[in-house]
Write a structure and sequence with these properties.
The complex is a heterodimer of chains A (about 290) and B (about 375). Chain A is mainly α. Chain A has 13 helices and 2 strands; from the N terminus they run αββαααααααααααα. Chain A has one domain: Orthogonal Bundle (MetI-like fold), CATH 1.10.3720.10. Chain A is about 75% helix and about 0% strand. Classes of the chains: A mainly alpha (about 290), B alpha/beta (about 375). At the A-B interface, helix 11 of A face helix 4, strand 6 and helix 15 of B.
């Protein structure tokens, strides 16, 4: 074998474990889901093998699914905006802090050491009728009766922000770290105020990080089902809850497959649009 | 011939020049690879006969099983019981459907409709009743309903029974008000935002049938039932999904009234919470069974079932989980606590309880579970 051919094969040999894992754990299951989406669920709960478009017809034409999908995208968008507003100042503070940056980053990562479900459920102890917040308000004499704060869309968004904020902060932080601080000094020397130099120099240069964080938050928020299940009320279901119900409660794996592919296509399209205009490089930096 | 002998013969052929060095090493390597690949699976296969997997409802129920049944059973037989939990039979059936035969063994199923459904999906097994002599102690009526589904055979043993009745906080709702309103209290505007409910389509339809004065096993006006469910949904703070969540919502006073499982409510009362419990007329009775799934190690499972049905184990578990055991009170002395449990029937006939008709409920399962899913979300 020639040296050139051997060298050409080397990257593929090195990549083969990763490619094998992706094929087995992602593409093959995805293929199963695609095939499943064309089957039917019989009245007894067993699957009827074949090529039927019924699930797709239902998923694409039924207003129920469209409305919940739109509601899910709305909740994900609000969550993303809140994460951006709350996360940017925090990321800026960490990026511009001197000496204690490592400790601040460690603090940022601390929540990941606790299960996402436990973190979500912790809000019940904070916002519940006999939770910390109501107890403090009653003790201070501000209210007589506890306020009902849980199990609505606001608490769902709160739970999602709690979960996703670190992803936003990390992405913006990486972006801010890459900006040469002397550019701000240069803006000052040309007469810009601190606020103007931030608006004209720092913010535009950090936008790729903000966008990458936004994409991550949006995609993760749109795909969640635990948060609405734990913190939502009867009307606060998100699209992933429909997938869960179709597959688990109704044992309708074919319809659940069609619904999950529908969500995948919508979120995939958003990722493609992002990649088309901003590229995935910044996202990789943030995740790294 | 053992492997050592095989190796010695191979080596001899190699040393005598009957095999090339490359072929010899290749065969040794292949044998090593085969052994390495085989060993973990063989060990797993042997281990499978040494353990039985049991899945149940979690919480106080699982604690009772672990303490009074599994640990003593393991100590006596050496067979380990791996216990898992589920939030409902629907969720569990998906897991079993996605598993390999033998991965899941015994499930604590609720209702004859679940039994019929699991058997209908080909998950049933056939118990050798000769290995379960303690089955003779069980209330005959409980056994017969299962036999009818599986042509006289059994794929499960009945284990306990209970009711899904109305649980209410006595600080806010009096016993008299509950008696007066019954199931209709769940659609009373007065308690908007303080009502809870199980997110189970059968339970919701059952109670909506009661609210619309219909037979829960034969509702004729389904529009009225769906409207009652919609009305309830608009007043509900939260549809709970597990017994633990039910207990938490009531104990924390997030809700004042909900339907609830008799044993869980009794557990709350034992903890000192002033929670009342009432079975309305035609309240939801159910019987639970220990279902052996197809592909399980039958003898080990039968031995566990027999152990669990032994009066001392069964009574201890019942006292722990607060549901009356399936043991016939006419044959077995059930002690002092069990007669005080909600839903307990001292006659052993269970004539006072209304159970779900499996044909009726399973016949509408696909359509009604889907419809409820939509209504639950505001449609």
């Amino acid at each position: 074998m020639s040296v050139e051919r051997r060298e050409a094969r080397q990257p593929w040999i090195l990549l083969s474990p990763a490619l094998g894992a992706v094929t087995l754990l992602l593409f093959v299951p995805l293929l199963f889901i695609i095939v499943y989406s064309f089957w039917l669920r019989t009245a007894s709960g067993a699957d009827q093998v074949g090529f039927y478009l019924d699930n797709w017809h239902e998923a694409l034409t039924d207003r129920f699914y469209r409305d919940i999908l739109l509601s899910t995208l709305k909740i994900a968008a609000i969550t993303t905006v809140v994460c951006a507003i709350a996360g940017y100042p925090a990321a800026y503070f960490i990026a511009r802090s001197r000496g204690n940056k490592a400790i601040l980053l460690l603090l940022l990562m601390l929540p990941f050491w606790i299960s996402y479900i436990i973190r979500t459920m912790s809000w019940i102890n904070i916002l519940g009728v006999s939770g910390a917040f109501n107890t403090i308000l009653i003790a201070l004499g501000i209210i007589d009766q506890p306020i009902q704060m849980l199990y609505n869309q606001t608490t769902v968004i709160l739970g999602l922000v709690h979960f996703l904020l670190p992803f936003m902060i990390l992405n913006v932080f990486v972006s801010l770290e890459g900006i040469d601080v002397t550019l701000e000094d240069a803006a000052h020397s040309l007469g810009a105020t601190r606020w103007q130099s931030f608006l004209e120099v720092t913010l535009p240069l950090s936008l790729p990080g903000l966008a990458a964080g936004g994409l991550l938050c949006f995609v993760l928020a749109a795909g969640t089902y635990i948060t609405p299940l734990v913190l939502g009320g009867p009307r606060d279901a998100m699209f992933a809850n429909l997938v869960f119900e179709a597959i688990i409660t109704q044992l309708n794996w074919p319809l659940g497959s069609a619904l999950s592919l529908m969500l995948l296509v919508v979120l995939g399209a958003i990722v493609l649009i992002y990649n088309r205009y901003l590229g995935m490089a910044q996202l990789m930096k943030g995740l790294g | 011939m053992d492997n050592t002998k095989r190796y010695e013969r191979l080596r001899e052929r190699y040393l005598n020049g009957g095999l090339e060095r490359r072929t010899f090493l290749g065969l040794i390597g292949a044998a090593g690879l085969a052994y390495g690949v085989r060993t973990p699976f063989v060990r797993e296969a042997f281990a499978a006969t040494k353990q039985v997997r049991f899945d149940g409802w979690g919480g106080v129920v699982s604690e009772a099983f672990r303490k009074y049944a599994f640990d003593p059973y393991t100590a006596k037989t050496g067979i380990k019981v791996v216990d898992g939990t589920f939030g409902g039979a629907d969720e569990y059936i998906s897991r079993v459907k996605a598993s390999q035969p033998g991965e899941y063994n015994i499930a604590h199923l609720s209702g004859v409709f679940d039994y019929a459904r699991y058997v209908g999906l080909g998950l049933g097994s056939e118990l050798n009743e000769a290995n379960i002599p303690n089955l003779d102690n069980v209330i005959p009526k409980l056994v017969e309903v299962f036999r009818k589904v599986t042509d006289g055979k059994l794929s499960c043993v009945p284990y306990d029974y209970g009711t899904t009745g109305l649980a209410y906080n006595r600080k806010h709702i009096s016993d008299d008000e509950m008696k007066e309103k019954g199931a209709k209290i769940l659609i009373d505007d007065k308690y908007k935002g303080k009502i809870g409910g199980w997110s189970d389509w059968r339970t919701r339809i059952w109670f909506a049938s009661l609210q619309t004065d219909q037979d829960p096993n034969n509702a004729t006006d389904m529009d009225a039932v769906w409207n009652a469910i919609r009305k309830n949904r608009d007043l509900v703070l939260k549809y709970w999904t597990s017994g633990a969540e039910l207990m938490s919502l009531l104990a924390e006073e997030e809700i004042y009234v909900t339907e609830g499982w008799s044993g869980r409510i009794f557990a709350l009362q034992e903890q000192g919470h002033d929670i009342g419990y009432m079975d309305p007329p035609n309240g939801y009775g159910w019987q639970e069974c220990l279902f052996v799934i197809k592909g399980s190690p039958m003898e080990a499972c039968e031995e566990l079932l027999n152990f669990m049905l032994a009066p001392e184990t069964s009574i201890a578990v019942a006292e722990g989980q607060n549901y009356p055991p399936a043991l016939d009170p006419n044959k077995v002395d059930l002690g002092k606590k069990i007669p005080t449990l909600p839903a307990f029937d001292p006659t052993g006939t269970l004539s006072g309880l209304t159970f779900a008709n499996p044909t009726y409920w399973n016949g509408h399962e696909a359509e009604w579970s889907k419809e409820f899913g939509r209504i639950q979300k505001g449609y």
